[in-house]
């Protein structure tokens, strides 16, 4: 079994505010994408990383990655391909670049640069053990409510309160049997429907997705405050 990581890094990072594409923004002097590639390369289970770069930025990303030491052991192969308009499209383009001998795939957001290697290993181990789909997840701390549409621009009405104890906030890397993930992407593309994560597409196939423990440091850098947190986590690691 050979496991590859696909890193979608083609987003613009609109919620982070103006600047370079999110994956190329620095955390304590090192681009977020470099942190993310290292996080995957650190896992012994991962022997290949496919980086899905901003559509016009593949050459720049190749140069950037060539200029950084990515793996301590130096054995992880890195492929760079241009991405698409949506995350789903970017992942699909990354999957299309996988060599034939890859049997398992971890899909990991460049926007989760600080995921610990133990989390990556746990997801990879579950895939190795035969799970068709695995997600790392944490309990949620906020109460989550469903709202309805607002009437004439007024406040949104609450329509339901979900049972918090049963909810999980899902992170990446999400791990898959290669064939299952490809089938899920093909089906969703045919139906023309969007999905916010890869496991969600696999669920629509009727395939069971299992959960392993996530990690607080695998949080997604989405808004400006997340940059503050990420830099503080890095500083604490170096202390
Ligand atoms: N992504 C991608 N291709 C896209 C859109 C997103 O590869 N067309 C990637 C992002 O680079 C990121 C991951 O998907 O690593 C998760 O997406 P998100 O956090 O939403 O990042 P952005 O889409 O870049 O941010 P925003 O939604 O705020 O614009
Ligand atoms: Mg986005």
Automatic annotation (TrEMBL):
<keyword id="KW-0548">Nucleotidyltransferase</keyword>
<feature type="site" description="Positions MEP for the nucleophilic attack">
    <location>
        <position position="220"/>
    </location>
</feature>
<feature type="site" description="Positions MEP for the nucleophilic attack">
    <location>
        <position position="164"/>
    </location>
</feature>
<keyword id="KW-0414">Isoprene biosynthesis</keyword>
<protein>
    <recommendedName>
        <fullName>2-C-methyl-D-erythritol 4-phosphate cytidylyltransferase</fullName>
        <ecNumber>2.7.7.60</ecNumber>
    </recommendedName>
</protein>
<dbReference type="Pfam" id="PF01128">
    <property type="entry name" value="IspD"/>
</dbReference>
<dbReference type="InterPro" id="IPR050088">
    <property type="entry name" value="IspD/TarI_cytidylyltransf_bact"/>
</dbReference>
<comment type="pathway">
    <text>Isoprenoid biosynthesis; isopentenyl diphosphate biosynthesis via DXP pathway; isopentenyl diphosphate from 1-deoxy-D-xylulose 5-phosphate: step 2/6.</text>
</comment>
<dbReference type="InterPro" id="IPR001228">
    <property type="entry name" value="IspD"/>
</dbReference>
<feature type="site" description="Transition state stabilizer">
    <location>
        <position position="22"/>
    </location>
</feature>
<keyword id="KW-0808">Transferase</keyword>
<dbReference type="InterPro" id="IPR034683">
    <property type="entry name" value="IspD/TarI"/>
</dbReference>
<dbReference type="InterPro" id="IPR029044">
    <property type="entry name" value="Nucleotide-diphossugar_trans"/>
</dbReference>
<comment type="function">
    <text>Catalyzes the formation of 4-diphosphocytidyl-2-C-methyl-D-erythritol from CTP and 2-C-methyl-D-erythritol 4-phosphate (MEP).</text>
</comment>
<dbReference type="InterPro" id="IPR018294">
    <property type="entry name" value="ISPD_synthase_CS"/>
</dbReference>
<dbReference type="GO" id="GO:0050518">
    <property type="term" value="F:2-C-methyl-D-erythritol 4-phosphate cytidylyltransferase activity"/>
</dbReference>
<comment type="similarity">
    <text>Belongs to the IspD/TarI cytidylyltransferase family. IspD subfamily.</text>
</comment>
<feature type="site" description="Transition state stabilizer">
    <location>
        <position position="15"/>
    </location>
</feature>
